[in-house]
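[Discussion] Sanity-checking designs against the backbone

I'm trying to build intuition for which residues belong where. Below is a structure token string of 296 positions. I'd appreciate it if someone posts a full sequence so I can compare it with mine line by line.
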């Protein structure tokens, strides 16, 4: 992208960019275009306000010197940090000489609009940007075609500036006329972080009870009379002992880990309508001929 301000870009072209994105010299998005300010001397577009911040609450003045427009928006020749640190000036429709000088100093511009040092596109003595850039000590020599394009640009910017400033101009029929303009809202969106959701798991303990059937052995004493003939011969009376081992089942508890559920986080986009309020300005035309007339 070249840093020259194309002569074919008119005041009306810039007006159509209001509400569009503004990018710095490195392609970084700065904000959205607000209001165009013209030179008091030449009527040429000289400054544009850029709305910055998350909701466009801040508005900074940016020089149109070295800027060009394309299908993406407006590309200016200054860096995003310069715009961020620009002097805070109230946007009231006119810049005083003191405010203009303060902006010149901040952006390193001379009173004529040309940048100090090389590497930036300059402007002519009438404040109209040219397409030539300084290269070291020697400026590039303009060709006849360059001079013709520059002359066309000066005439076009001067005409647009006079009409935008409300000075008399002739229409295609030769009638004296002024160009009435108004601001219109153009709303867009930008993506910003609204919050974060974390998925975290932790361990908790609880008591569980289960019933386990168990078995055990018990001793039961049985007495039976001895039938005649079953007695052993030579049985003697004396002490005798027998032992029986008893068994029983006891509950044994074991634990195992098994997956039971998968928990995931998904995002979905929902759409809603929000009302955005902004103050817009418009120009009204009054006819002063000594008689009362309605405004138009």
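Best answer:
Here's mine. Compare freely.
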């Amino acid at each position: 992208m070249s840093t020259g301000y194309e002569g074919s870009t008119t005041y009306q072209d810039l007006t159509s960019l209001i509400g569009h994105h503004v990018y710095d010299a490195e392609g970084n998005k700065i904000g959205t275009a607000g209001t165009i300010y013209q030179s008091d001397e030449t009527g040429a577009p000289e400054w544009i306000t850029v709305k910055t911040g998350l909701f466009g609450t801040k508005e900074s003045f940016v020089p149109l010197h070295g800027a060009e427009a394309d299908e993406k928006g407006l590309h200016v020749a200054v860096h995003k940090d310069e715009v961020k640190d620009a002097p805070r000036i109230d946007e009231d429709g006119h810049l005083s000489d003191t405010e203009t000088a303060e902006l010149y100093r901040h952006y390193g511009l001379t009173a004529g609009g040309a940048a100090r040092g090389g590497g930036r596109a300059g402007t002519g003595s009438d404040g109209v940007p040219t397409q030539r850039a300084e290269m070291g000590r020697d400026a590039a020599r303009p060709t006849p075609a360059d001079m013709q394009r520059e002359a066309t640009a000066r005439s076009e910017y001067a005409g647009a500036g006079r009409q935008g400033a409300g000075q008399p101009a002739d229409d295609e029929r030769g009638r004296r006329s002024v160009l009435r303009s108004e601001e219109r809202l153009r709303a867009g969106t930008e993506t910003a972080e609204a919050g974060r959701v974390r998925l975290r798991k932790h361990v908790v303990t609880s008591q569980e009870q289960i019933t386990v059937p168990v078995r055990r052995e018990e001793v039961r004493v049985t007495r039976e009379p001895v039938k005649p003939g079953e007695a052993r011969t030579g049985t003697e009376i004396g002490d005798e002992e027998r032992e029986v081992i008893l068994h029983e089942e006891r509950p044994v508890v074991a634990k195992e880990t098994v997956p039971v559920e998968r928990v995931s986080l998904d995002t979905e986009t929902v759409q809603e309508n929000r009302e955005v309020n902004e103050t817009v300005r418009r120009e009204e035309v009054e006819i002063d001929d000594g008689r009362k007339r309605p405004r138009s």
